[in-house]
Structures are given as structure tokens and as C-alpha cells.
Specification:
Mean pLDDT: 97
Oligomer: single chain
Structural class: alpha/beta
Low-confidence stretches: none
Strand order of the largest sheet: 3-2-1-4-5-7-10
Radius of gyration: 18 Å
CATH architecture: 3-Layer(aba) Sandwich
CATH superfamily: NAD(P)-binding Rossmann-like Domain
Helix content: 25-40%
Distance between the termini: 47 Å
Bound molecules: nicotinamide-adenine-dinucleotide
Amino acid sequence: MLNKLVLTGARGNLGNELRAPLAKMAKALVSTDILPAPDKLLPNESYVQADVGQMDQIAPLLEGADMVVHFGAIVDEKPFEDLLGPNFIGAYNIWEAAHRHGLRRVVYASSIHAVGMAETNGGADTDTPHRPDTFYGLAKCFSEDLGRMYWEKRGLEAVCLRILSCTPEPQNARALGTWLSYRDMVQLVQRAVDTPTTGFTVAYGVSANSRAPVSNHKVGFLGYRPQDNAEDWAEALLAKAVTPDPQDLAQTRLGGPFAKVGLGQSGIAALTAMTRGKSG
Ligand SMILES: NC(=O)c1ccc[n+]([C@@H]2O[C@H](COP(=O)([O-])OP(=O)(O)OC[C@H]3O[C@@H](n4cnc5c(N)ncnc54)[C@H](O)[C@@H]3O)[C@@H](O)[C@H]2O)c1
């Protein structure tokens, strides 16, 4: 059992799912987010409201911790200036504070958008080079490279989880490949924390989907064995699928709608429109 774990983005959709399982892995869990504390905390959980983009707010929380699970970020494409503090400087602050306080590992919520311009049918694996589709994806590339550099220069381990589409249920035909169930997401983070030695590792956050467009075959040592498969929803989702179009970047690139939007324009809005069947 670890002594102390820190979880950023603890008020978010995924962070909230992680609080209870992470609390079981450490004597103390420190949850943090830019939002105020939740109504109820777990018995060994404390909460600090902090902006990850501000070193003086975030660094003290990491003192005495074994690991930090860094999920706090703006989760959409926006103008670069909007992402600079939370997503770029925030990642630097986490890695630098982890180094200063002698943490063993950073577990990081990266994203498929780090390789979002790679072809869906290209057989992407964990060595696929960075090909961001947005400033949001670029921040994930920056953070992964930061993680690799801090491992190689300073011996701080990192496991970067390139999450695809983590939702309670798969939302659209694209998600037949990209879905990550909540329970598989929790298992992936648990393995990223409890695998004894990871060095610098990239893994995809995807369920055991028959149509997954990415492969974790090089990171079997993490012991991540997903339980869910979006194929169970195939009939319903294919019935709502958009007209196939090989010229449509939203269909042909791993980033889906994010690969199609202009830089600085919301990818979530495009994703929502796609899910409602309004566009490709
Ligand atoms: N949900 C997905 O499918 C998905 C896919 C790929 C990557 N991710 C990554 O997983 C992480 C969690 O995503 P989510 O779906 O739970 O999103 P979310 O928006 O629900 O959670 C993000 C949390 O970060 C917090 N936050 C934002 N700016 C902050 C700041 N400056 N300081 C501190 N906290 C801040 C928000 O308040 C929020 O609670 C993110 O890093 C996201 O990029 C998620």
C-alpha cells in the first residue's frame, strides 16, 4: 500500500470515478481540482481546491506523496492561450513538483488526440509518432514528451494513458472502436499505479473492442486486461451511423471530429453533433 496519492481533476467525470478505487490503494488520498470540494469525502481522503496552472497552489500538495494521478485539464479544443495555463503549464507544474518532492511516478491522462491525425486504419500502436489534431492534442504531446524527458534526465517514472472515448456507454459508431468503459478506465489506472516498474510508458485507454483502431500489444507488462467490448452496442450504433465518406477526416483519422475542426474550435461540439447524427 502506498502512503500518499494525489489525484488532480478529482471533480471531473473520470476523476470522480477514480476517487474510491485510488483511496483503497494508499493510506491517504489528496484530491484536488479548480472546483470546490465535493459534498462528501472518503474516510482517508482530503480535498484542496487549487489551480494546476499555479505552481504555488499545486506544488505543496505533492509533498510526501508516492505518485500523482494527473487528470485535471481543460477537456476540449480551445485557442492556445486558453489551454496554455491549465494544460501546458499545468503539466509542467505537476512533473516539476513531482521531481522536487521526490515522487516515484506520474500517471497522466493523455489522449488519442496526441496522435489524432494518424489514420484510423493505420495500425497505430504505442510507438506511433505524435500527430496532434488540435492545440488540445498538442498539449498531450508536450506532456508526454515532458514525461519522457523527466524519466530520462531525472528518473521520474511516468505512465501516459492515451484515453480514447471514456463514457458510461459507447455514444456513436466511432465509439465501436474508441470506447473505454469506466470500469476498464479504473483498471487501467490501477495497473498504472501498482505495476512495480514502468519507466516511461505510453498505453491506450480503450476497452476490449473488437474494432479498436489502436493496439496495446507492446505494453502487456502493465497487466491491463479490459473487460468490456463496445460490440455489444453495434447493431444500435451502426443503424445511426453517418454516410460513409472516405474524404471525411472525422471518419478517417483517429481523432474523429477533432481531426476535422479548425484549430481553436470546439471538438466536443463537433462530437456532439456527430453523435446526434448531424454531421460526419
Ligand atoms: N473523457 C474522455 O473520453 C477523455 C479522453 C481523452 C483524455 N481525457 C483526459 O482525461 C482527463 C479527465 O477528463 P474528464 O473527461 O474527466 O473531463 P472533465 O472536464 O470532466 O474533468 C477535468 C477536470 O479538470 C478540472 N480542471 C480544469 N482546469 C483546471 C485547472 N486549471 N486546475 C485544476 N483543475 C482543473 C475541471 O474542473 C474538471 O473537474 C483530462 O485530462 C482529459 O484530457 C478524457
